[in-house]
Amino acid sequence: MSSRDMMLARVRQALADVPAGEGPGGEGRDGPPVARGYQRVHGARTRAQTVDLLAEHLADYRAIVHRTDAEGLPGLIGRLLAERGARSVLVPPGLDVSWTAGTDVTLVEDRASSTARELDLVDSVLTGCAVAIAETGTLILDAGPDQGRRRITLVPDHHLCVVRVPEQVVGSVPEALPRVAPDRPLTWISGPSATSDIELDRVEGVHGPRTLEVILLSAAPETDRAGSREHWAGSGEY
Amino acid sequence: MSGTYLGMPAFPRAAATATRDTRLRANLTHATHTIRDKRAKAVAELDDWAQLRAAGAAVKDRTLRRLDHYLEQLEAAVTAAGGQVHWALDADEANRIVTRLVRETGESEVVKVKSMATQEIGLNEALAGAGIRAYETDLAELIVQLGHDLPSHILVPAIHRNRSEIRDIFRREMASWGRPAPEGLGDSPAELAEAARLHLREKFLSAKVGISGANFMVAETGTLVVVESEGNGRMCLTLPETLISVVGIEKVVPSWQDLEIFLQLLPRSSTAERMNPYTSTWTGTTDGDGPQTFHLVLLDNGRTDTLADTVGRQALRCIRCSACLNVCPVYERAGGHAYGSPYPGPIGAILTPQLRGLAGPLEESLPYASSLCGACYEVCPVAIDIPEVLVHLRERVVQGGPVTLGGTRTVLQPAKGHAAERAAMRAVGWAFDHPGALRAGMRLAARTRRLHPRRLPGPGRAWSRTRDVPEVPAESFRDWWQRTRGTSSGRGTSSESGTSSGPGTSSGPGTTSGPDTSSERRGDVK
Ligand code: SF4
């Protein structure tokens, strides 16, 4: 018998107490119920408040947060790169070209053939994101065209990430998962790389980028701050 | 420390040594209290914590009860996504598989993400034996590895080291593993982290093979999940050409949606953060992004035996958050090494004896490495009733009974004479010389009393008839023991009478006036 068959046989023998037919393979009997009585999102917020919460929680984890609109974006990106003294910036292939119109820093395209050592020579990386989670201060990158391969946001020391607000912002982890596809490689980022391994003192930037700057990009000048209630606050089965 | 847990002394002896180490105790106390306090705040932010916890426990239970189904589903999904799945019955087989896979790449160095499963099977030593050098890349694991040491905490494996010790280790050892420590390295955490960054970056940029574990595997989609803080995980998971993940079979969850529960429970319970800095998920391989060869090694190594124990199987729900360590008064005094495995603290006290079987003095003493104060159960994000399992395992040690070992149903012999109970007394005895620890436990016990089971379920009931232990959660082990140890009625476990009672004799372990101890159940392998 192969180890596979032996392990499966041992599992089945170990579960002799479980009624035959229980579970997803059985005839509609799913086994002990899972009460999903937890909340989809914690608290009721307007869309604007959700964006504010994201900003607050990003900052809590020592990401640097900026806000601008489409008009101000190229200038802001140019300024942030200049302030860092960056000479080169990695850009994913599908990045909106207008974003880099305000900088004369060398743009380095992400290529499958470029080695990790080559990436290590680049100063900054500029990406979009797929979804951001307000309650946890998390950016999710799904390797989409404006985000690129996972490694490009890892090796350079400075990551600039643009989040379109409010449409890319959700309240909670349960709201985020359906918006990303599991068959894509995902990177969830909550603040810059950090460790607390030495006497529990937090130190930023062990192996990943030491600096994470997040640009909250609104389509229009910040006018409609009230927004609409996007979340129901209740809990229950679903 | 020799870098392996084999040959560790039984808990009482190891704990006695550890409690004499005042520096260790100071480090541990600072660390556990800091995390504990932070965690309480992070958990309090979610007012549906109780519901999340119940759902987490229920999802895990449901998965475990049809584990065969979910493992087959997972295998199919990983394979369809371009990965290769291997099955390993025990540590040796897992090590052989990984060694072969590394050899097939032609490489002799690998970079590793912190992983309990590979600690458990002693993978680094096995690879070293095959001439393959494994570099630990988590900062704490690096400290442990360079210090020729063993991890002592699930989350912060070098918790027993302070900054000046770490500086000394880096200065002394880094050069023989790669880039030496910077000249004049100081002992500030920032400097030490920077030294690790420089030292390890060379490895990351040249490594062709990465080895990891996983926090979760999604059966439905074949997705693996690793949560981490430093980015070393991302380095190992994305830069090499080949990725090998060794994962215990209990890490499977049914659906993508289930992650919404665990990605809320785990970070807040372990690092006390709303979310850990990095979470990576991958499904097989992706063209042009990350490793182009992916192997998943599914590890049994005692898990199916644990699954066969209807009381003890709940230990397989564990998501390795380490919250139970940080609240445990015994862990705080004894330190992680005393538990003799990568799984220290309360979870180690129930997991290690189950994974390995109640096979020797260490495993037999571990169920006694607890004051049964119940704090571990209270914090556990998947509601593992650790006190219940401890008492159940104590019963097995003392009375023997049915167990599954290596897939074979067996009846365990009771521990010879009073050996087990003497071991128990040694295990707790040291703690009573340190009243502070016990007081802490008692305060918690008082607060958590209503959460404790009133009666022991199942087979524990018989045992409890002859002992006062069922009341222990309410009055604390210490009170119970002090109340009973010196009394001439000889109740409890301190009596030395009947020391000759062994297998096949009718007097049970401990002094008993109650029902007999089921001598008919003692026997040989069925
Ligand atoms: S037993 Fe519970 S509290 Fe302890 S490490 Fe496992 S999940 Fe965390």
Strands, helices and their partners?
The complex is a heterodimer of chains A (238) and B (526).
Chain A: H1 3-14, H2 47-60, E1 64-69, H3 73-84, E2 88-91, E3 106-109, H4 116-120, E4 124-127, E5 131-133, E6 138-141, E7 158-165, E8 169-170, H5 173-176, E9 186-189, E10 194-195, E11 203-204, E12 211-218
Parallel strand pairs in A: 1-12, 2-3, 2-4, 4-7, 5-8, 7-12
Antiparallel strand pairs in A: 5-6, 6-9, 10-11
Chain B: H1 11-19, H2 22-44, H3 49-65, H4 67-80, E1 84-88, H5 91-105, E2 109-112, H6 116-121, H7 123-129, E3 133-136, H8 139-146, H9 163-177, H10 189-206, E4 209-212, E5 216-218, E6 223-228, H11 232-238, E7 242-248, E8 252-253, H12 259-270, E9 278-283, E10 293-299, H13 303-307, H14 323-327, H15 329-334, H16 345-356, H17 361-365, H18 375-379, H19 386-399, E11 401-405, E12 408-412, H20 419-432, H21 435-448, H22 460-465, H23 472-475, H24 477-485
Parallel strand pairs in B: 1-10, 2-3, 2-4, 4-7, 5-8, 7-10
Antiparallel strand pairs in B: 5-6, 6-9, 11-12
Helix pairs in contact in B: 1-20, 2-12, 3-12, 9-10, 16-19
The complex binds iron/sulfur cluster.
